[in-house]
Design a protein that fits this description.
The protein has 249 residues and is α/β, with parallel strands linked by helices. 35% of the residues lie in helices and 24% in strands. It has a domain of 172 residues: Rossmann fold, CATH 3.40.50.
Length: 249
């Protein structure tokens, strides 16, 4: 991490600040049908934690009576407030949620969950959700076969194998929930699609923190190289949206 800092890279979580517009334009949404599997009444008050630009928030706002969004980054939160004005928005972190005890019926965490999959955040989530309420983690993942060209995919694989870009895996993220006051985890998935062109496919990649945090010259050179490997056209992705949830004891 020190080498990245010395080279002009920015701290990983903060990399989303400068990638906020790309995140909003290129990241997929979530299918409303995914909420059908959850035991949460439509009259509920729910929290979207680490809400980003509101990709999940706007889906929640289409289902539940009162939606609260908590997001630490000003740039991400500004977009959220613009596109989901119905949501109550707050600055805040998962380890210090600006809500009172037992004030929500459910807490949702989407793609940002890996940033705060720790015991301190789980304790805060347990504090704000009422007993019998729900904690739900939602994420999207592309399903093979990929529509992207082989050369493009191979280069991305090489880049992410670089020690500076390797994300690693967090096998403890769901174990942290199990250590908290929550019951057994349940899981369901729903398939949906996203269609991108070359620009939006590259914008998606630029919104990934592992790329967004690179020094400007290296980041721009990397994206230019990838553009040369990605022909203009339409790319249709099959996406699996998954929710894993547990009941607060």
């Amino acid at each position: 991490m020190q080498a990245l800092a010395d080279s002009g890279a920015i701290e990983p979580a903060r990399s989303f600040e400068r990638a906020a517009a790309a995140y909003e334009s290129a990241r997929p949404s979530y299918p409303l049908a995914l909420l059908d599997v959850l035991p949460i009444d439509t009259g509920s008050t729910v929290l979207d934690l680490g809400a980003g630009t509101g990709k999940l928030t706007r889906v929640l706002a289409g289902r539940y009576r009162h939606v609260i969004a908590v997001e630490p980054l000003d740039g991400m939160r500004a977009i959220l407030e613009s596109v989901v004005p119905a949501a109550e928005s707050h600055a805040g972190a998962a380890e210090s949620i600006p809500l009172s005890d037992s004030s929500v019926d459910a807490v949702f965490a989407a793609q940002a969950f890996h940033w705060f999959a720790n015991d301190e955040a789980i304790a805060e989530i347990a504090r704000v959700v009422r007993p019998g309420g729900i904690f739900a983690v939602v994420w999207n993942e592309s399903v093979d076969p990929s529509p992207l060209p082989d050369a493009y995919r191979a280069r991305i694989k090489e880049l992410f194998a670089d020690g500076r870009l390797a994300a690693g895996t967090d096998g403890e993220r769901f174990a942290a929930i199990a250590r908290g006051p929550f019951g057994e985890l349940c899981e369901k998935s729903v398939m949906h699609e996203q269609v991108q062109d070359r620009d939006s496919a590259l914008a998606y990649l630029s919104s990934v923190s592992l790329v967004a945090r690179l020094p400007d010259d290296e980041r721009l050179a990397t994206l230019a190289e990838l553009r040369s490997l990605l022909p203009a056209g339409e790319y249709r992705f099959s996406i699996r949206a998954t929710v894993r949830w547990a009941v607060r004891a």
